[in-house]
Amino acid sequence: MLSFPPVSQAAERRVPDLGDGLVIQGQPQRVIVLEYSFLDAVVLAGISPVGIADDQKPQRILPQLKQRIGHYQSVGLRGQPNLETIASLKPDLIIADQQRHRTIYRELQEIAPTLLLLSYGAQYSDLLTDARVIGQALGKSSLIGERLLAHEYTMDRYAAELDSLTENKESPSPERFLFATASARGVAVHASKAFASGVIKRLGLETAIPPEDDNAYMRVSFEQMAGMNPDWLLVGDYNQQGDADILQRWQAHPLWPMLTIAKRQQMKKVDPKVWSLSRGIYAAEQIAEDLLTLVAADQVAD
Known about the structure:
CATH class of the largest domain: Alpha Beta
Protein name: ABC transporter substrate-binding protein
CATH superfamily of the largest domain: Nitrogenase molybdenum iron protein domain
CATH topology of the largest domain: Rossmann fold
Distance between the termini: 44 Å
Shape: globular
CATH architecture of the largest domain: 3-Layer(aba) Sandwich
Number of helices: 13
Helix content: 40-55%
Number of strands: 13
InterPro entries: ABC_transptr_periplasmic_BD (IPR002491), Bact_iron-sidero_bind (IPR051313)
Structural class: alpha/beta
Pfam family, one: Peripla_BP_2
Keywords: Ion transport, Iron, Iron transport, Signal, Transport
Order of helices and strands: EEEHEHEHEHHEHHEEHEEHEHHEHH
Strand content: 15-25%
Organism: Oceanospirillum sediminis
């Protein structure tokens, strides 16, 4: 369990964000995060938040994060956090998402200084920048800088290992990867601006997303996915039973056997809380580990 540092008598500092900008002094001790990516950055700074918008599903928090935090109070859904619960925790810093929380931004500011950043729909590079901003707000800039440097070394190592594996494959062109989530609402491809796609590209791999795409997420039909025809389809299945009905229908489609993922048996399940929900440093490194494991296993199978 992490212990809280004492509040320092540091000078007042101004931290730029997507709202009014944050004016804060010292090191906040009672932090509330309203998105999983913000939890990642706060833990990276060595701080355990007092409140988390965890969708009332603590199992969605990555094990790597859970083991680094102490007891916390759920403040409800990420899309609709409970303001009374937030106020009752007497926070000295709230970290909120521009997309989800802009309509309650003023109310949050009345409770405590509020840092407004982008998590939902943010790119991988944006979230690295956000981690630095959160480090400033927490008075932990140096520590966050060190952790981000270590992250770059880690990602470089994974990229080199993946490059070594893919170089050995007898293929006329690089394999293309596609990540999508599946649920009762359908299949959503995480497109060019999505976190997972940014991580895939950071690792030196190619995506199957059309080059003209400018979205974070897009719902797709079987025909649209078939048009992209990825070499790998990585699916985060939100269906609690383990197989979203839509995936079963896709695999029953008469054109399914013609797809590369069917021929090579390269539609693989991945954890949506890692690939979709968490959107932080720990998640990026786990995605890299997952990809290395999948590609290495495919090499052995060949």
